[in-house]
């Protein structure tokens, strides 16, 4: 059974998971209201300040009623990795009497709960970019970020050197650290997954993207560009990169909106694939919100 347990030697915490647009924020809020728990966001983009509309952060009213943590942690031009999130998230949870984890960033959730884990899949675009650099240059990069691995590898071992650099550039964690023994969290997690029909999910995604545009996503992107420039990593994410293309005149706004919808749907599909692999997750439809809330409070 699910327990939103008080502080103890080994407590159990509920995690609300599922694809973007499924209603995790609303469900987590309802459970928090009934249980008196605080919410710990598990979203790789909500950690950045000023990125509010495009990341669908809980609104100010929600956050004034229920304490939300791991939101607005760093500025968009600061590097913040899954490793950083796990460290900070565990510290926050350790200081809370009751907590609920809410979010859809699978990598961050695994880092939080399981500690360091098996190496992630590397984005093909990053691999292509690194492939254009010389072995000597890559080895120099590796020595700067992971001296232990650099000393273990031959300077001409291009394959392993590039792999180590890929891992660091993707996660912010040296491959030598990834190889260390994992340190699981000192709490157990019970997962509630929002099992939403794909057609309904896609409709909700389209409505949410339209709402983001109506509530000022374009102005939000303009502000971020003016303050930080285009090169910051968070602006390459869904919702922001497409609006940047529009602002640069590469596409019209309607096209940008359609691309955001398409890319968000694809991302939601990947999220579902990820979360379906978590064993013992209880999947319940969003139509049964009250049932889910009551189940979580047992």
UniProtKB/TrEMBL annotation:
Cofactor entry: Mg(2+)
UniProt keyword terms in alphabetical order: ATP-binding, Magnesium, Nucleotide-binding, Transferase, tRNA processing
GO molecular function, one term: tRNA dimethylallyltransferase activity
Positions bound to ATP: 18-25
Keyword field contains ATP-binding: yes
GO terms for biological process, alphabetical: tRNA modification
Positions of the record's site feature: Interaction with substrate tRNA: 105, 127
Name of the top EC class for this enzyme: transferase
EC number: 2.5.1.75
Catalytic activity: adenosine(37) in tRNA + dimethylallyl diphosphate = N(6)-dimethylallyladenosine(37) in tRNA + diphosphate
Binding site for substrate: 20-25
Job of this protein: Catalyzes the transfer of a dimethylallyl group onto the adenine at position 37 in tRNAs that read codons beginning with uridine, leading to the formation of N6-(dimethylallyl)adenosine (i(6)A).
HAMAP family with a match to the protein in the record: IPP_trans
Family designation: Belongs to the IPP transferase family.
NCBIfam families referenced in this protein's UniProt entry, alphabetically: miaA
Name of the protein in its database record: tRNA dimethylallyltransferase
Gene: miaA
């Amino acid at each position: 059974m699910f327990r939103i347990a008080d502080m103890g030697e080994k407590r159990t915490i509920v995690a609300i998971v599922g694809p973007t647009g499924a209603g995790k924020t609303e469900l987590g809020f309802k459970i928090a209201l009934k249980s008196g728990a605080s919410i710990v966001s598990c979203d790789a983009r909500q950690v950045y300040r000023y990125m509010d509309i495009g990341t669908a952060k809980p609104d100010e009213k929600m956050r004034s009623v229920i304490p939300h943590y791991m939101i607005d942690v760093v500025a968009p031009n600061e590097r913040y990795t899954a490793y950083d999130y796990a460290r900070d998230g565990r510290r926050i949870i350790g200081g809370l009497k009751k907590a609920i984890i809410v979010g859809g960033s699978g990598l961050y959730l695994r880092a939080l709960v399981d500690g360091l884990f098996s190496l992630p899949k590397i984005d093909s675009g990053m691999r292509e970019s690194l492939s254009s650099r010389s072995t000597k240059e890559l080895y120099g990069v590796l020595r700067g970020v992971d001296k232990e691995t650099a000393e273990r590898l031959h300077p001409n071992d291009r394959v392993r050197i590039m792999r180590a650099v890929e891992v660091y550039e993707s996660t912010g964690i040296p491959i030598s650290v990834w190889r260390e023994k994992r340190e699981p969290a000192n709490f157990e997690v019970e997962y509630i997954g929002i099992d939403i029909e794909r057609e309904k999910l896609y409709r909700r995604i389209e409505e949410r993207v339209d709402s983001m545009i109506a509530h000022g996503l374009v102005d939000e992107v303009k502000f971020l560009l003016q303050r930080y420039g285009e090169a910051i990593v968070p602006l390459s994410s869904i919702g922001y990169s497409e609006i940047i293309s529009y602002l640069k005149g590469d596409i019209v706004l309607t096209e940008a909106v359609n691309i955001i919808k398409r890319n968000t749907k694809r991302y939601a599909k990947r999220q579902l694939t990820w979360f379906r692999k978590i064993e013992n997750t209880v999947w319940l439809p969003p139509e049964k919100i009250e049932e889910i809330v009551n189940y979580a409070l047992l």
